[in-house]
Known about the structure:
The protein is α/β, with parallel strands linked by helices and about 650 residues long. It is about 30% helix and about 25% strand. Helix 5 (about 85-100) runs antiparallel to helix 6 and helix 14 (about 370-380) packs across helix 16.
Amino acid sequence: MASDSIKSVLVEDRVFAPPADFAARMGEVHVPDMAAYRAMHERSIRDPEGFWGEVARGFRWFAPWTRVVEWNLPDAKWFVGGTANACFNAVDRQVEEGHGDDVASGWEGEPVGPGGPEVRRGTYRELRDEVARCAEALESLGVRKGDVVTIYMGMVPELAVAVLACARIGAPHSVIFGGFAAQAIVDRVQDADSKVIVTCDGAWRRGGVVPLKANVDAACERLPGVRSVLVLRRTGTEGAMKNGRDRWWHELVPAQPATRACEPVDSEHPLFLLYTSGSTGKPKGILHTTGGYMVYVAATARWTFNLQPGTGQVYFCTADLGWITGHSYIVYGILPNRVPTVMYEGAPNFPAEDRFWAIVERHKATHFYTAPTAIRSFMRWGDAHPAKHDLSSLRVLGTVGEPINPEAWIWYHERIGGGRCPIVDTIWQTETGGHVITPLPGATPTVPGSCTLPMFGVDAAVVDEHGTEQPANAGGLLVIRRPWPGMLRGVHGDRQRFVDTYWSRVKGMYLAGDGARRDSRGYFWIMGRIDDVLNVSGHRLGTAEVESSLVGSKLVVEAAVVGMPHEIKGTGVAAFCVLHPDHAKDAGDAMRRRLMEHVAKDIGAIARPDVIRFTNALPKTRSGKIMRRLLRDVAAGKETTQDTTTLEDFGVLAKLRESDE
Ligand code: WT7
């Protein structure tokens, strides 16, 4: 993270107490004050078995567990011996308990016709039936318990249906973000050894169509193992259906009976894989299992957002289901709380920059959860857009994905929250399953830019390499010192990477990969990643992935990718490229555009470099390591403070500077 933004958080000391009338607006407040927070947190750490045992008893189990937790560093098992089903607790349970006619979800399509956008609402009963049919359809395609199903769709209701259908039969899902391109599909399907893909013909995005099925077709040329592709028609995009492999959703799914019951699975049965970037080129498949994840995401959603069934709450999260935020806080964490969850299909600025506020108004959302990068875009688009809409239904605002700069926090608080809505700045990761440090809206005084205090059961700390806790305001490594129910259970097919990445650098503790400090109040401040992972618009991107895509173009022989400060994205992507000798004469804007397009097509638009610099050689140390810090300084336009005496070629730095446009 840029040191400028660190400075701006260091001076921040405005404190916002929870509004006095919060309880009056919310009905019951689960954690009403700091004394309650402290008592619950203290107990959750002193007696995790008692604490989580009580929480888990609020869920439906087919067979009870015999032990709450078993901890064999680095492996944890939760609710050992119990059997459950995450789809049952999200959906079927509500129907069984007499809430089948309650609204489970709302959805808006992106296109806006003369009569407004397409809006759908579904009850728990409708959702259960649709999920049961989809589960049956997947089984008719040969999917069995334990088989990984790949899901690559736009943000349509059927995406949530497909996810829950997998959970229903115990087939782990692997959702691939619809913004990723063919190569990303190939890598993930191969790694997961997945034989069935669920997709759409296309997805609406900013008025255009993302050709999802064409991307799947291209990927399948390199994936002989894929047996079936189930295709939902959404955009009406023409494309050939491959005989024997492709099936239409509208032909197969509605024809099934809605009778398939939820499969009882072991508490540690895999629920899903979700691929995320690390510091090597290969994305890792983060494994989450059933019982612990199911309990953790629903309980944290309830505490963090103060969810209350039957009180008219409506929860709107702008994330895509292709990311962990969508998994945990659109589907698995919200549905069990019986508060309608709103999904939106498209871009925030389609057909105009007020789209999210139109959705809040139309659905009377009480909760709104988005990323700082989006808030910075809203600020730039201007106050007139939210001002056009009635946002008075809002009660709680959330942010996630990256540190929020205090300016954006204040704008969000005033312009969106009308000064009356607590902001929960939630830090967590694909790996943590759910929130690990966050304010609680009725209890925690907030300070713009700080994610404040640990969630129940989370023993978070800032330590040095030896695991020694750092004094107030000293920077260090963010760790969690004991297991929590939502933690990852492994990296698919790569035990060593699981051990090396999370459990080796600081002995006996989970290493998040973020730098952090705690202030004198004990509040946490996240300082950014400590590895070669960039946080671009709240999305994780491995520098090595972009580098290998650039080299894969065959136009570039060597590339180094670093982050650079970016007004909207937080971090932008800067690439330093050494062109192949045959193309060296082409260094220029046309080549820049060609390489940017190549990366966008290969990985997806989020990986498209913002800046490309051509150079004759990359600056390296004598041992051959690329001097990334120096490149970061150059990309940020700073005079480098780095000692350059170890540079292999002193001329390189000068040449890089000359290449400044
Ligand atoms: C990384 C995890 C959690 C869902 C979205 C991203 C950064 C996330 C915050 C926050 C500061 C944050 C961290 C973390 N991050 N939320 N509120 N404040 N940083 O999930 O792709 O797994 O990325 O995002 O660096 O390690 P992810």
